[in-house]
Amino acid sequence: MKFFKTLFGQVVLAVIIGIVLGMVVPDFAAKLKPLGDAFIKLIKVLITPIVFCVVVLGIAGAGDLKKVGRVGVKAVIYFEVVTTIALFLGIALAYFFQPGVGMNVDPQSLDAGALSSYVSSAQQVKSQSTVDFLMKLIPTTFVNAFAGGDVLQVLLISIGFGCALALLGQPGKPFLSLIEQASHVFFKMMFFVVKLAPLGVLGAIAFTVGKYGVGSLKQLGYLVALFYVTVGIFVLVVLGSILRIAGFNIFKFIRYLREELMIVLGTASSDSVLPQVMRKLERMGIKDSTVGLVIPTGYSFNLDAFSIYLTLAAVFIAQATNTPLSMSDLLTILVIALITSKGAHGVPGSAIVILAATLTAIPAIPVIGLVLVLSVDWFMGMARALGNLIGNCVATVVVAVWEKDIDKNQARRVLDGEIEVDLDEHVEDLGQITAPSPTSAAANP
Q1: How far apart (Å, rounded) are the C-alpha atoms in residues 165 and 174?
Q2: b/e per residue, 368-382, with b = 16+ CB within 10 A?
Q3: Is the pTM of this model over 0.90?
Q4: b/e 181-192 (16+ beta carbons within 10 angstroms → b)
Q5: Domains and CATH numbers, the chain
Q6: Count of CB atoms within 10 A of residue 59's CB?
Q7: What is the tens place of the pLDDT at every residue in 16-57?
Q8: 413 with 34: CB under 8 angstroms?
Q9: Residue 30 class from Cβ within 10 Å (0-12 exposed, 13-18 middle, 19+ buried)?
Q10: For residue 79, which of 94, 101, 179, 302 is within the disulfide window of CB 3.0 to 4.6 Å?
């Protein structure tokens, strides 16, 4: 069938096979986890050099550094407003549906052993001041940022490098040409890796179903279902309304990103599609300088679904352990979650770690209650990754419209399907579609 010859069809087939293997041969399926892990590691190897090339080429091609600064400020303003809405939504729906009421869990009966490493990491996150966080953005050496895989550090270096090349003008052409050629190489490598997406998804799904079982959601199924519904409401209603104001349809936008979303659903990681998403947004008609700034920054500062998870899970634990929350407790959760969620992308086991750091600021809620959420964190992680990815893509479109950095006619034609963007061809030609040439960059010093 033609459908299964496309990457999207192959990923769908991989999801089905993974679920079947997990149900029929769970022990064997659980051993397939390395397939998913290997795929994500291969993607992460290429993320930092690709981000560097895209951001440098985008800024050097933009020429106007004041414009780059405006894009950054507008992105941060958008991130904070939308993230706050997500936090409020999580609390509101948790109180309305009360998923934890009736569980009557005694905190003393929970096993603290499973949380020891998470709580230890949470204490480090909580004790980290704003100055510490900002200092962490500065790498020890130029190479160390790439070796450590820290996207924010690479972004900082990329912005400085791109600005320097823009100011150099003609003398910077050789460097810009070299970076442009390097981008072609990295994107060609990404083309090879993306071909392995079905295997990665198969391994991740088979492991999940094989280890936890289809019935693993029964105990906390209400919480998981509510989280998915909440993320769905946020995407369709909140982000849908924002995108509508910008002049686009959320359903067409999701359809356009369906291949990437299926990969994210299978791997529970938005890292696995970062380069492809950046180029797809450029193919819509958004300037590469805007895409290169908003998407990497959003991966750490615009975690919409993650923000919903923090407040929803915190209230759930309070309800499950019969812990009353005052209005001041709720406000504290909001403020702390708004702070702790920033940079969570780079924290190992970030969801549980950041949730623990948030809860330690509210003495009334027993941190040990995290054990209740730990068993279903992977399932919630799928929705977190999907919601975060869609949120960052919408943010890029909105900032581009705000800054007039998007060709709306081209965007509508792409979303309407008048211009087909096949993922296989798209990834193969990534380095040739919109990267500014050294000549054009030098013409706009």
Answers
A1: 10
A2: bbbbbbbebbbbbbb
A3: no
A4: ebbeebbebbbe
A5: 8-442 (1.10.3860.10)
A6: 29
A7: 888 888 888 888 888 888 887 787 677 777 777 877 887 787
A8: no
A9: middle
A10: 302
